[in-house]
Amino acid sequence: MLEALLEGQRQLGSQMAGIRAALGTISENQDKLTAKQDQFAAKQDQLDARVTALTREVRNGFDDYNRKINALNQRLLSFETWLSRIDDRLHDEIIARTR
Asked: Using one digit for the tens of pLDDT, what is the confidence trace for 57-99?
């Protein structure tokens, strides 16, 4: 009977050693996973910063593009007004010569 108890304790000890080893492996894997998550979070932060910078750059580019378009539109409007004045003068001159 005592031998059976000792054998049971040996088996229990062996199983406990296996459980400890498994817990150690789990703890190691958990540490590795935590490190990878930290790396991923850092990369995500870098990506967020890059996206923010790119968004700002695109917005600034659109603003600059819109300013250039507005300047061109103003020039075209001025040119159109100038052509209209010339057209009016030519029209007036043609009318004056045909009378």
From this structure: 999 999 999 999 999 999 999 999 999 999 999 898 888 888 7
- pTM value is 0.55
Alpha helices in the chain (DSSP H): 2-98
| Residue 39 neighbours by CB distance under 10 Å | 10
Q: In angstroms, rounded to a whole number, what is the distance separating the alpha carbons of residues 78 and 23?
A: 81
What are the distances in angstroms from CA 71 to CA 76, 78, 81, 83? 9, 11, 15, 18
Measured distance CA(70)–CA(64) in Å, rounded? 10
Q: Give dist(CA 37, CA 66) in Å, integer.
A: 43
